Please model this.
Amino acid sequence: MHFSEMECEVTLVDPASIAGVLQEKPTALVFPGGRDVPYHEGLQGDLNRKIRDYVQGGGHFIGICAGGYYGTSYTEFDRGGPLEVASSRELRFFPGRAVGPAFPFPRFCYDSEQGARPARLQVGRESMFAYFNGGCYFENAEEYPGVRVIARYAELANRPAAIVQCRCGEGKAALFGVHPEFPLTVLPEGSGMRTEDIVRKRFFMNYLQRFVRDEQCDF
Model:
């Protein structure tokens, strides 16, 4: 799945260009996967304030994996391990903590598929699979006003939130612990998941289109 499939013009931005792009009121600002620490180091302070102002004024923020961590108030990653990150974040679209990796095994490794796996999600009364590799869960998401749980990790204790939608002023943020854009077929076990992958793509295309159009979701 690519955002161009949603009839969106895609523009790459960096810390030097993001302020100018935000002035043009884009349909959405997307923070993809990778690592959230470089986001924090490159944008803290004035640029994060501009991002919040854009969303509060009616914009849409989409945070995927690292971008999902970054859109919260606090990133906790690999607590006590060699990759540990434990520090506050400024965007605070989700008022609580992003805690990960949500699945401790197989062990996550940067720039590798070592920790990748299909994650079963509960969406309302239905279930589906999505690609997971080091993402978070959103702690106690149901306790915060203005936060809607879109999907939960069906296989984890207490089924924590895997995808949340957060109201911020006139705008909103969609934060993902999983990767909506990656096909399940890239996983070692993915060759037998073609039907599940059709379901995955249909759901995420429908959800993201409704999200950026401010349309009500039916789940």
Summary: Residues 26-210 form a domain with the Rossmann fold fold (CATH 3.40.50). The longest helix spans residues 194-213.
